[in-house]
Amino acid sequence: MNHVLLIDDDVELVGMFAEYLEQEGFRVTCVHNGDDGAHEALGGQYAIAILDVMMPGTSGIEALRRIRAASRIPVLMLTARGDDADRILGLELGADDYVAKPCTPRELTARVRAILRRTQAQPDSGPGATLTVGKLAIHPEGRRATWDGKPLDLTSTEFNLLEVLARNAGKPVSKNDLSEQGLGRPLARFDRNIDVHLSSLRHKLGPLEDGRSCLQTIYRQGYQLIKE
């Protein structure tokens, strides 16, 4: 049974979400402030954390900073509808995805399942199979990646997207395909999620021999991992 950590100061809303998640087979622990939420998330017993951005005291953004400083646990952010600044900042700090509030318990649960499906998926290319593209090596079984032999510090979503690009190295992958395969959901209109995650990946991946980024934007087609 997947253990979900739900961090939100809205006690009534948390209760509604928790009840629905439990009916769907999840175990849920609820925390109502950012300090306790960050501490709990670092305990190692949770499959995913759901974290509200707007909380008094320690905000969700600050709690996310603390979590990402020491853990790769998948984090789903709850953001105010239309608040693009917090949404993008959360993604830049390492959130895996977001849901805009108000949202239904069903929508939230579907997003949690999508993240966990990708995080916990078994590789379909055979046990121990390694994807190698130039200096990049991806180990799907252990969900690890290295560049020139050095470990890459990736969030679960960054790993998912990089694996999709590596399996299609040398050809562009559309943003919609990246969203479907990497996030487990269709690309929404005006969704900047993929762009922010790919920008983060560019900073983490090393350059090619000629100094170019190995991750290129292909006009009107998507993103491509250069195969050299």
Overview of this protein structure:
The protein is an alpha/beta fold. Helices cover 39% and strands 21% of the residues. The chain is built from 8 helices and 11 strands. The strands form 3 sheets. The chain has a 5-stranded parallel sheet with strand order 2-1-3-4-5, with helices on both faces. Strands 6-7-8-9 form a 4-stranded antiparallel sheet, with helices on one face. Strands 10-11 form a two-stranded antiparallel ribbon. Strand 1 (3-7), helix 1 and strand 2 (27-31) form a beta-alpha-beta unit. Helix 1 packs across helix 5. The protein is globular. The model has no long low-confidence stretch (mean pLDDT 90).
By DSSP, the count of extended strands is 11
- The backbone outline, from C-alpha atoms, is globular
Helix content: 25-40%
Structural class: alpha/beta
Mean pLDDT over all positions: 90
* Main sheet strand line-up: 2-1-3-4-5
Q: What proportion strand?
A: 15-25%
Structural Rg: 18 Å
Query: What is the H/E order?
Result: EHEHEHEHEHEEEEHHHEE
Q: Give the CA-CA distance, first to last residue.
A: 43 Å
Oligomer: single chain
Tally of alpha and pi helices: 8
Biggest sheet statistics = 5 strands, parallel
Unreliable runs: none
